[in-house]
Structures are given as C-alpha cells and as structure tokens.
Amino acid sequence: MLKTRVIPCLQLIDQSLVKTVKFDKYGYIGDPVNTVRIFNELEVDELAFIDIRATKEKRGPNFEVLHQIADECFMPLSFGGGINSFDIAKQIFSLGFEKVILNSASFSQPQLITEIARVYGSQAVVVAVDVKKNFWGKYEVFGLSGTQNQKKNPVEWTKQVEELGAGEILLTSIDREGTWKGMDIELIRQVSDATRLPVIAHGGAGNINDIEKAVKEGKASAVGVGSMVVYQGKDLGVLVNFPDKKILEAALV
Amino acid sequence: MITIVDYGLGNLGSVLNMMKKVGVPAQVTGDLDTISKAEKILLPGVGAFDPAMEKLTGTELRKVLDKKAKEEKVPVLGICLGMQLLTRGSEEGELEGLGWIPSYTYKFPQTELKVPHMGWNLVKRNVPSPLTDEFDDEFRFYFVHSYYVKADSDQHSILRTQYGVNFDSGIQYENIFGAQFHPEKSHRFGMQLFRNFAKI
Predict the structure, then answer these.
(1) Backbone phi, then psi, for A24, in 5-degree steps?
(2) Is A71 labeled as catalytic in the residue annotation?
(3) Domain, as residue range, for B137
(4) Closest by Cα among A244, A225, A215 to A176
(5) Among residues A19, A143, B13, B113, which one has the fewest Cβ atoms lying within 10 Å of its Cβ?
(6) pTM, rounded to two decimals
(7) Which domains, and CATH codes, for chain A?
C-alpha cells in the first residue's frame, strides 16, 4: 500500500518561520533550518515551505535560506512563493527541492505550469488552490496570499491546471487555515472527485481525527498540517512536533 | 570516493549531503578528467527521459561514462531518472537509453491509481544484491515517477515494488545498479542504501 502522506506545510516570511490564521494575522515560530532538523529526527514524510509574502512584497524567494533548508533536509521538499519565472523554478530545483508550488503565477501566466512540467515532469509542479467561501456559501479561488479573488470555482480551476500539466494540487481552505476547527471535507471531496491528480488537503487540521476524515471522507491523497505541528496546542506556545507514527498509521489504514 | 555526475539536471546537493551524513566520501562534478578517474559513479536524474538523454547522447561525457561502465566496470548506481537512463529506452521518449542493463522503461497503465506514483512505498528484495544488504520488510522509500522499469530477466531484478503493476524498483546487471526511488529523500532507508553502495 502507498503510505498516505502527512505533510507539514510551513510558512516563511523571508527567513523567518511563521504561522498565520486564515492567511492573515501571524505568529513567529522560529528558525526554519532548526525546524527541519527536528522534522528529520521525527522522520516526517515530506515538508512544504511557502513564503507567504514573497509575491506580495514583490521580492523573490530567499535563496540563501532555501539552500540551507535543502542542505539539512533528508525528506522530500517543496517550495512556493514568488515563483514567477522558469528561471526561479530552475534555481529552486537545483537547490534540492523536488517540487515547486505555484499560486499567483498560475493565474497571471498559466503557461509557466506547462513550461516547468515539460522539463521537470508534471510531478514537480504543484498548484496551490486557495479557497474561501463567499457570503452565499459558494467556493471561490484566491491568489496573492488570499487577497485577490480570481472568481473561479475550485473544481473547474483544478481541471484546468491539470490540463496545463500540474502534477499535484495543494488545496487550502483559507477559512479553516490556522483555526484548529477541522478541515472542509465538502471542499476536499469535490476537488478530489474531479481530478486524477493527488490532492493535498490543507487548512484546519487540529488532530489525527481531522486528518483521518480528510482521507477517508474527503478522499484526499495527502494531508497538510500547520498549527498542530508547530504549536503545543491551540492557544499554546511553540513546539515543533509530529503525531505519533503508529497512531497515525492505524488511523489511516 | 563516490563521484556524483553533474550533467545539468537533478538535485545533487541533497545526495551529497546524505553521503556526508553517513560518512561516505563523495564529490559532485561535471569535469571529464575527474569522472574518468572515478572509482564509483552515481548517476542522478530528475525530469523527463529525452531532455536528460539529450545531455548525454553524442557527448564526450557519454564516451567517458561508457568506458567507465563497460570497460573498466566500476560500480555505477543510477537513481530515479538515472535508473531509467540505464535501460534501452523509454515509452516517455524517442531517444535511446544508455542500454547498460537489459531492461526497458514503460508507462504506468491507466487505472484508478493516480500517476505519477508519488509517495512512500515498500520495496521487497527479489534477487539478493550487495546494494540491498540489511534491507528488511519495513524498508520504504520515497518515489516520484510516471514511468517504471522492468528488467528483461528476473535475474536482474533486485527490488520489487507494487503499484498497480509489480515493477522493478531496483535492478542490477554486473557492476551496474539502478534504484527508482529517491534514497537522498528517504531518511535512514536511503542512508543504508548509500552505505551499501560505498561498500561494493
């Protein structure tokens, strides 16, 4: 059996590790390189880093920090944030990242998905689909750290990026992100049902039960976790941790 | 000393760093002189088959590699796409492979299973090989690939993995070895594989 991946989705602002709530307010977590060392020891499945301000602040990724992260990491790695050209993606791969994550560029220059996939393979291109529910309860896709409404339906958009050559979807519920309130199973299920691509469900996981639901009811291929692996608990202090592997495996069988 | 061949594709930093971590001397280079003196060669690779073969076919590097592998018979380990390059060719591309192991690279059939095969999966030993010493049933590796290798003869299949099809996740023909997964991204399991290769 293919092991279901549980992926810490870690947020950077330049060289600092942070954690947001609903893509907005954030708390400072610490040094990303130290955090990678801890996740190595915990033998985590995979890590994703996203610089949540790289595009907004109109600067590229901090390659120096990414280099240090890649050097320390003995597990698969993805990076997103500020990737708006083939050359930037190329630099990320050459540092030792397996995958790049595109969000803003997937709207402004969708051909970049195809271009990267052609050289590095589809499996190396993740598209981050960030979703909010509007006042009428309709799902809408957002760009630019959740600030730019793209007026797109997540299911339709996922199908489009699949055709463009994306290899994986990082599906985030902005409404649930950082809240510990459980994941948006309806959203996860709609998107997973509509695509052959692996879907990483992200946003709202607070415990193993939430992860299990995303996989069993939502049909997610993988689950992204944030708050629960960098905090001791809701409203508690910073503690880099990972759920017990045996309990996790039992829940995901 | 393991010489990791840099031919402009692939994530070599992490391979080098894992070798450092387990105390295996290694260097990354694209320099032909250095490669022609190599005691052991690691051929990495990510991405698609043809762009990778384009960087080798007809080059001086290809000549040096052929000599090392076929005449001098130094141990060669191809990982990820590097393993697929060891085969005759691939359903992914038009170009001929290196053809150092009697084998071919096939596309995963369309089933309900998602392609690429991406994630951790188990490997099972088939024919015993020094590359898979001390592997037990717990051994799992990180895979990312849309095409898989099948050796022509069962005798050259050293590791098997089940994903819709039962494919060869490890192959060996004389001094040439291939591993489909990413050892450098597979924690202690990858470290064991690199230790084994260093001892061959």
Answers:
(1) -120, -105
(2) no
(3) 2-199
(4) A225
(5) B113
(6) 0.82
(7) 5-252 (3.20.20.70)
